[in-house]
């Protein structure tokens, strides 16, 4: 930019030779040193006003991008926000799991078992019965007993007696035998069971703290996502303003090349007339080459800025990128709040502080959970069984029967108690980390407020200087134009004045973009971009 400015200045000054050469060509008979004062020539017709290329390039267009639109588009295209959204869903799922832990554990099972065959015997037993022919009927008849031989009966080891009634007649035959004492074995087993477990100690010492930790962690992730969205929006707006600034610089550089080319043509005529040296021409050619290099650099920067903005906003290459905000005429109200008031405002509004406060409370709850490992566990339980055969009934029968049981159990795991001090220390260390991050964030917020506040004040001063410079440049152009009409100056001075107006307008554009960016950054630093504030 400085090289093109030097090129323009030198070329404009050098073009005075062209005006002199044209004047002398009109009066060839009068030598230059002895030329007497003559009347001023008739001024040429005023040239048409040069269009303001910068204002045209940066003018707002229908359907163009605005800072708010940029902030909205980036939320849909930035990949890092998808990561934050996934972290929030994970934290919400953990909070749901912590809530479900309050529900007593209920479980059920259904089973079928095929058993191998076995013989179960408890020895033998004495059996009394009557014999009628070859039939043995268990039982003891009434009447007198007389020893007698047993008839043929199907029982081994049997002894018999005759039963005599009151008339002396035989009424029956009593048999006594020993048989094995066995009980049935059922080979097919079916069972339906239900269990209920109530962790009494966990309700008192663990679950409430676990749920509190999960809930605070979910809130922290919500704030982190919101903070990431605001940060992404602020960065996209800065990228948008930088693209406008780069676009304006590219236009000015292109205009500088055009002006340098025009001046080079003028100097060539002066050299052909013998009123300038070859060195002047070479120097102007070098200045034009420097202007072309600067134009190529600024054009590449503008292209890169546009591509970066498209990528950040998720815009396709075939979609035109237009400006939808009037950067040359800022109508927003100035920020009159003091730096101290902005710091206090940031401490109350910034989402990052809320996220750390929630994380701090979540870690505090985990310390209580770790301390619960010192205490023994107390659990209440209940079981219900519906099975065939039911093992609680003896002897077994091939039928379904229902039984239940309930009780309270206290258990103590030595390993958990030994690990409790380390778990408590770990949780306290995480709490200390959160506290350190919170203190670091507070310092960072104060530095951010101080930096953005200083940028705003500098931008406001630049606006005033740029406005005064533009007024002076435009007034100079008006004066030079009047002098040209009166024949008291050359077109070189007018062109130089026009170039100065262009540079002044560029400084004004840079100042206008700078103050918009400074306001945006300060409002973000103070937390004024937080929804609902």
Model description:
The radius of gyration is 52 Å and the shape is rod-shaped. It has 2 domains: 2-43 and 64-105 and 200-323 and 338-373 and 417-526, Outer membrane efflux proteins (OEP) (Up-down Bundle); 121-182, no CATH class. Helix 9 (351-371) runs antiparallel to helix 10 (414-486). It has a 5-stranded antiparallel sheet, with no helix packed on it. With 533 residues, it is an alpha+beta fold. The longest helix is centred in the middle third of the chain and has 73 residues, at 200-272. It has helices at residues 2-14, 16-26, 53-57, 67-77, 79-100, 200-272, 278-313, 339-349, 351-371, 414-486, 491-526; strands spanning 105-114, 121-132, 135-138, 144-148, 158-164, 170-182, 188-199, 377-388, 401-411. It is built from 11 helices and 9 strands.
For the secondary structure, the number of strands is 9
List the total number of helices: 11
Q: Secondary-structure element sequence?
A: HHHHHEEEEEEEHHHHEEHH
Radius of gyration: 52 Å
pLDDT < 50 runs, ≥5 residues = 1-47
CATH level-four homologous superfamily name of the largest domain: Outer membrane efflux proteins (OEP)
The first-level CATH class name of the largest domain: Mainly Alpha
Strand content: 15-25%
Give the arrangement of secondary structure elements.
Elements: H1 2-14, H2 16-26, H3 53-57, H4 67-77, H5 79-100, E1 105-114, E2 121-132, E3 135-138, E4 144-148, E5 158-164, E6 170-182, E7 188-199, H6 200-272, H7 278-313, H8 339-349, H9 351-371, E8 377-388, E9 401-411, H10 414-486, H11 491-526
Antiparallel strand pairs: 1-7, 2-3, 2-6, 4-5, 5-6, 7-8, 8-9
């Amino acid at each position: 930019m400085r090289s093109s400015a030097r090129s323009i200045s030198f070329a404009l000054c050098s073009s005075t030779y062209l005006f002199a050469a044209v004047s002398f060509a009109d009066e060839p008979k009068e030598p230059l040193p002895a030329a007497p004062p003559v009347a001023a020539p008739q001024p040429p017709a005023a040239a048409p006003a040069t269009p303001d290329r910068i204002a045209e390039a940066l003018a707002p267009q229908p359907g163009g991008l605005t800072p708010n639109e940029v902030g909205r588009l980036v939320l849909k295209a930035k990949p890092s926000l998808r990561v934050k959204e996934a972290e929030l869903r994970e934290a919400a799922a953990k909070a749901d799991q912590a809530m479900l832990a309050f529900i007593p554990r209920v479980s059920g099972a259904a089973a079928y078992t095929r058993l191998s065959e076995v013989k179960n015997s408890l020895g033998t037993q004495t059996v009394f019965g009557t014999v009628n022919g070859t039939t043995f009927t268990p039982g003891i008849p009434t009447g007198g007993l007389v020893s007698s031989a047993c008839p043929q009966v199907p029982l081994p080891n049997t002894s018999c007696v005759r039963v005599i009634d009151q008339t002396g007649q035989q009424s029956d035959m009593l048999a006594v035998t020993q048989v094995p004492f066995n009980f049935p074995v059922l080979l097919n087993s079916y069972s339906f069971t239900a269990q209920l477990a109530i962790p009494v100690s966990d309700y008192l010492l663990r679950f409430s703290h676990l749920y509190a930790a999960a809930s605070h962690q979910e809130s922290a992730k919500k704030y982190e996502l919101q903070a990431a969205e605001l940060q992404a929006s602020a960065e996209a707006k800065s990228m948008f303003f930088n693209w406008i600034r780069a676009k304006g610089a590219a236009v000015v550089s292109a205009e500088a090349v055009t002006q340098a080319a025009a001046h080079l043509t003028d100097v060539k005529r002066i050299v052909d007339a013998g009123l300038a040296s070859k060195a002047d021409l070479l120097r102007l050619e070098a200045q034009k080459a420097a202007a072309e290099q600067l134009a190529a650099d600024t054009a590449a920067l503008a292209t890169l800025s546009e591509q970066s903005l498209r990528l950040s906003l998720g815009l396709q290459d075939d979609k035109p990128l237009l400006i939808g905000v009037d950067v040359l005429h800022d109508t927003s109200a100035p920020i009159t709040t003091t730096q101290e008031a902005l710091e206090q405002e940031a401490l109350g509004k910034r989402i990052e502080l809320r996220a750390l406060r929630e994380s701090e409370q979540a870690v505090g709850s985990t310390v209580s959970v770790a301390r619960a490992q010192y205490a023994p566990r107390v659990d209440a339980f209940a079981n219900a069984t519906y099975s065939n055969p039911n093992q609680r009934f003896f002897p077994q029968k091939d039928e379904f029967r229902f039984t239940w049981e309930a009780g309270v159990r206290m258990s103590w795991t030595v390993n958990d108690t030994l690990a409790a001090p380390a778990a408590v220390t770990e949780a306290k260390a995480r709490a200390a980390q959160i506290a350190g991050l919170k203190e670091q964030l507070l310092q960072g917020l104060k530095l951010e407020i101080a930096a953005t506040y200083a940028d705003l004040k500098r931008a406001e001063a630049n606006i005033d200087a740029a406005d005064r410079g533009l007024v002076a440049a435009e007034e100079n152009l008006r004066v030079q134009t009047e002098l040209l009409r009166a024949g008291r100056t050359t077109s070189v001075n007018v062109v130089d004045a026009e170039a100065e107006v262009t540079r002044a307008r560029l400084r004004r554009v840079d100042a206008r973009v700078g103050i918009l960016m400074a306001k945006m950054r300060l409002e973000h630093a103070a937390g004024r971009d937080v929804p609902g504030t």
